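dumping this here so i dont lose it
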């Protein structure tokens, strides 16, 4: 049940066969195909899977990456399922459906999504993270900034949550026709969707239509450290709906480190994960091949 995301080495190696060979050298033969690949590169990956003896655990939206218009956003949020601009929301749905097609083609059962963002103007997260990094998370200034941030999110969220609901209705209907489930991922920034309560809200609406929960260890740990929601609460509340976990380590609120190079207690985390659940190493550069191989060995023993 252990696999590795292409997000680890795609930034270092964009020759597809070389990238896949390095992924396989970690000791794993199953991968999650991430969101970095435009249609031509995705076709190359798909053509290599069977000859290289690789299988796919999951596909991360957007896969392929949109190539129909420029975007200044992070590639995983090229279009937002939460957008209140109907044209953009429809584009997000269209390209998510293409990710569903990709999952169907490679024979995996899941597409992982970033559901969107509550637009709040200038990001108050930067103030919060700076205070944390300065060791002031126990101060009244930190608490006030956090509560102001969360209050502002709550005030602004309704139209964006409604847009996600509308998008999921369309995406899930299509995904069911392809026998694919949609994984709703824990997010990093507190103004992103879903927060803890919204995970439950969307599962209540759509669990019987193919929506599942996809946990992210680094994202959840960072939010725990900011005092927003205890990490373990996600497992206590949503374990029955959990079908995938993105595994990466965290030091302070810096995430996507190789497992066992930060300070997450993975033995404790793994004790909370049901046996059926896909476990995907989602480290980013500069994690080294040596760190990944150690992580594979240690995670396999948990």
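and the seq i came up w/
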């Amino acid at each position: 049940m252990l696999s590795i995301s292409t997000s680890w080495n795609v930034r270092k190696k964009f020759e597809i066969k070389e990238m896949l060979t390095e992924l396989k050298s970690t000791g794993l033969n199953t991968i999650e195909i991430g969101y970095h690949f435009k249609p031509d590169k995705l076709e190359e990956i798909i053509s290599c899977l069977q000859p290289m003896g690789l299988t796919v655990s999951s596909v991360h939206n957007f896969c392929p990456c949109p190539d129909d218009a420029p975007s200044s956003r992070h590639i995983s949020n090229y279009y937002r399922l939460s957008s209140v601009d109907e044209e953009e929301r429809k584009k997000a749905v269209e390209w998510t459906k293409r990710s569903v097609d990709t999952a169907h083609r490679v024979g995996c059962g899941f597409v992982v999504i970033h559901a969107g963002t509550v637009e709040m103007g200038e990001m108050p997260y930067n103030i919060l993270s700076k205070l944390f990094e300065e060791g002031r998370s126990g101060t009244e200034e930190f608490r006030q900034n956090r509560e102001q941030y969360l209050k502002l999110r709550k005030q602004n969220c309704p139209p964006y949550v409604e847009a996600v609901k509308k998008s999921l209705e369309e995406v899930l209907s299509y995904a069911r026709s392809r026998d694919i489930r949609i994984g709703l991922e824990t997010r990093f920034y507190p103004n992103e969707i879903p927060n803890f309560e919204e995970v439950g809200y969307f599962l209540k609406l759509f669990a019987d239509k193919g929506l599942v929960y996809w946990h992210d260890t680094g994202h959840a740990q960072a939010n725990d450290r900011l005092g927003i929601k205890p990490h373990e609460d996600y497992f206590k509340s949503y374990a029955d709906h959990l079908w995938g976990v993105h595994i990466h380590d965290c030091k302070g609120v810096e995430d996507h480190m190789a497992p066992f190079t930060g300070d997450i207690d993975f033995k404790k985390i793994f004790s909370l994960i049901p046996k059926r659940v896909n476990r995907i190493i989602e480290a980013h550069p500069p994690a080294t091949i040596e760190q990944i191989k150690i992580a594979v060995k240690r995670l396999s023993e948990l």
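The chain has a mean pLDDT of 95.
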